Amino acid sequence: AKDSGRNTVRFYAQVMESNIQERMWIEEELDYALKEQQFRVFYQPKMHIATGHITSAEALLRWFHPVRGLISPGEFIPIAEQTGQIVAIGEWVVKKVCEHLTRSTELGLPLLPIAVNVSPKQFQHPQFIYKLRQIFEETGVDPSFVEVEITETTLMDNTEETLNKLLLLKQIGVRIAIDDFGMGYSSLGYLKRFPVNALKIDQSFIREVHDESTAAIVTVMIALGHQLQMHVIAEGVETEAQLDFLRQHGCDEIQGYLLSKPMPLNEFRDFVRKNYG
Ligand code: C2E
Ligand code: CA
Ligand code: CA
Ligand code: CA
């Protein structure tokens, strides 16, 4: 028993060491990733439940490393958030999205608003709004075609500065959605204080919506959003049963594998051509 205990300790030490090495590797490689253009923006459509229309899409970052292949955002975004690299990466994402929007207009495609994920550090950066405006000016994109998805963590920083930034975004015309709603530990008080357009119910609730108590929570979340004049979106919708539940309870939009996985720009454009209406 004593021996196995010692082995366990050694095992954890090894795992921790390899985790640290992995983090250091990612941190170092992330610097090249931007320069060497290893990132791509994928798009996942959202559908209006009542009409079946495609209304918008979410931009999701993909990292194609020349040796390691595809590295998922879950692996590198939290590290980039800690090191501050997310500020430059996030700015690149907004720029790409705006360039894609401009090109879509040139191609005569129907223009759909695109939601971009903004991490807390990126949002809190003093130049955040300034950089956004600069990109809108450079690309000529109408800011009302861009939505920012922020998490409750960003709003928990319940300061005047956060409020002012959100009001400024609203004034510019940028839409604001709360991502992963229900996962935070903040009070609901911030909801009435901040100018938010949409609530995205976290996929962990949708996954368990067949369960009675989860269904009750989702029902209340939809009603809450509507009471506050917000649009309610369910993410991670994978089955017809989940869609049926959401339709019955008046949820506005869905996003998830049932409709489509996130796809590269060309595929997304084909999808819009085929399904827009
Ligand atoms: P998120 O913003 O909550 O995005 C939703 C995630 O759920 C995406 O994972 C998406 O591919 C996945 N998903 C969509 N539909 C389904 C479904 O039906 N079933 C399941 N199981 N999953 C589904 P992804 O693309 O791996 O991104 C993970 C997270 O990384 C995102 O979560 C977001 O927090 C972050 N992220 C991605 N791109 C960016 C970015 O450009 N900037 C920042 N700051 N964060 C990003
Ligand atoms: Ca999101
Ligand atoms: Ca989410
Ligand atoms: Ca998430």
TrEMBL record:
Residues 23-276 form the EAL domain. This is Diguanylate cyclase. It comes from Sulfoacidibacillus thermotolerans (Acidibacillus sulfuroxidans). The chain holds residues 448 to 724 of 725 of the full protein.
